[in-house]
């Protein structure tokens, strides 16, 4: 049986070719808030392995707090130019500090400074504070490497269900559902 992770990798690669998107790696990650509401937002998909799907963020953001209360999460992708939708549900776990360091180093200095300047999801005093806080962070690190803040890292969503939908104009979409039994992936086709 074809591994759905390998299938995802192929689709992800295909989605990057001739993509009209500026943010080609954006995927929607949803978590559950303390009132039981789902909460979705786009993040950059950083890596995919047999273990799962990795994105980076502030660990004390709204999503970070939600994940620590309830790791049940989902990730949804839609790549219009190839007509692929992928829906994943699974459990989010923090990546290791070593992995977080690795992803931190791949960020631009400007992204590192922005991360250091803000408390993600906290109220902002005014729009002018955006530039001021960034400027302050630039001065603080004045030419020095920007260390990874302790509250920045990443999560891996370990999948239990992955569904691939191939969009068809006829609406006869092909839906392939893979469910992880714990031992192997079980595949079922679903009606469109
Ligand atoms: C295209 C795009 C990519 C984004 N990538 C990330 C990301 O990789 N990590 C992140 O924390 N926020 C990212 N954001 C911002 C999130 O959508 C969100 O506003 C932020 O993480 C705060 O979410 P929270 O308050 O639910 O924690 C991105 C937004 C967009 C539109």
Kindly describe this structure.
The chain is an alpha+beta fold and 192 residues long. It has one domain (4-107, 149-190): Electron Transport, Fmn-binding Protein, Chain A (Pnp Oxidase, Chain A), CATH 2.30.110. It has five helices and eight strands, in the order H-E-E-E-H-E-E-H-H-H-E-E-E. The chain has a six-stranded antiparallel beta barrel. The longest helix has 14 residues, at 128-141. It is elongated, with a radius of gyration of 19 Å. It starts with a helix and ends with a strand. The structure holds flavin mononucleotide. Flavin mononucleotide binds at residues 23, 26, 39, 41-44, 55-57, 61-63, 120-121. Flavin mononucleotide binds next to strand 2, strand 3 and helix 2.
Number of domains: 1
Give the class-level CATH name: Mainly Beta
Sheet/helix structural class: alpha+beta
Shape field? elongated
Element-by-element helix/strand order: HEEEHEEHHHEEE
Ligand names: flavin mononucleotide
Query: CATH homologous superfamily?
Result: Electron Transport, Fmn-binding Protein, Chain A
Strand order of the largest sheet: 1-2-3-6-5-4
Helicity range of the residues? 25-40%
- In percent terms, what proportion of residues is strand? 35-45%
Briefly note the CATH topology name.
Answer: Pnp Oxidase, Chain A
Quote the distance from N terminus to C terminus. Answer: 22 Å
Q: Compute the number of helices.
A: 5
The unreliable regions are none
